[in-house]
């Protein structure tokens, strides 16, 4: 397999993973009474409505060139917790909707793999397109979705897992909490990019290997990570 094929398949896996992740956030907020995401066109499957230049293009490219897990992020879906009957609970539901969407997509890829498993060996030998689909696209699609899920579950703002912290923040300090979220992103970038580059230490990569890699191998009929 040449590098171009690998890049194309990576993009075909990564783009829908982040699009449906962000759509799930917006859909959850809309179902809870907040029309913000819908008004701004963020319930669309059009990738152009969700792409963030750094998170969707540059960061995954860096991860790919470094040989690490391919993950990144799209433009955060805007929502207004004041529309929710219970802002704290709504914040958690909206926050976890994205990782849940990634889990469902990983499970879907595994289900397809299991359904094709009885005839996969003969089909792989006779069809190169099927080989790429079964042996590369399906496991990569599952892995990327699981990487996104577990990465976003890290309880560090602005990642989705930080929404759980909001349950324990007193209401009177919520405004300050949301302000702190804005400044946590540079710290996260240091952990993601500078630590592996400068000190050859990649705690996030190790965490994703243990979590996403283990779940992927449990889901699929063959070892993929």
Walk me through the structure:
By secondary structure, this protein is mostly helical. It contains seven helices and no strands. The longest helix has 40 residues. The model has no long low-confidence stretch (mean pLDDT 86). Its main location: membrane.
What shape does the CA trace take? globular
Order of helices and strands: HHHHHHH
**Beta-strand segment tally:** 0
What is the average of the pLDDT values?
86
Radius of gyration: 18 Å
Assign a percent range to the helix content.
55-70%
Helix vs. strand class = mainly alpha
In short:
Belongs to the peptidase M50B family. The chain has 225 residues and is mostly helical.
Search tags:
225 residues; mainly alpha; 0% strand
SSE order and pairing:
Layout: H1 3-31, H2 36-39, H3 53-65, H4 87-126, H5 128-152, H6 174-199, H7 203-219
């Amino acid at each position: 397999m040449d590098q171009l094929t690998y890049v194309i398949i990576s993009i075909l896996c990564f783009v829908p993973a982040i699009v449906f992740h962000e759509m799930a956030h917006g859909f959850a907020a809309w179902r809870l009474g907040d029309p913000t995401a819908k008004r701004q066109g963020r319930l669309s499957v059009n990738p152009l409505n969700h792409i963030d230049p750094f998170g969707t293009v540059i960061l995954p490219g860096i991860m790919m060139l470094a040989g690490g897990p391919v993950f990144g992020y799209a433009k955060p879906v805007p929502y207004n917790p004041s529309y929710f009957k219970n802002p704290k609970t709504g914040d958690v539901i909206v926050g976890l909707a994205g990782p849940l969407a990634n889990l469902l997509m990983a499970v879907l890829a595994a289900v397809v793999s299991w359904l094709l498993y009885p005839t996969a060996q003969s089909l792989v030998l006779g069809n190169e397109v099927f080989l790429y689909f079964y042996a590369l696209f399906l496991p990569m699609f599952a892995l990327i979705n699981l990487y996104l899920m577990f990465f976003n579950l890290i309880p560090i703002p602005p990642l989705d897992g930080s929404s759980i912290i909001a349950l324990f923040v007193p209401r009177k300090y919520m405004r300050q909490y949301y302000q702190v979220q804005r400044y946590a992103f540079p710290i996260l970038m240091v952990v993601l990019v500078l630590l592996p580059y400068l000190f050859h230490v990649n705690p996030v990569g190790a965490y994703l290997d243990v979590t996403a890699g283990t779940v992927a191998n449990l889901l699929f009929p063959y070892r993929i990570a």
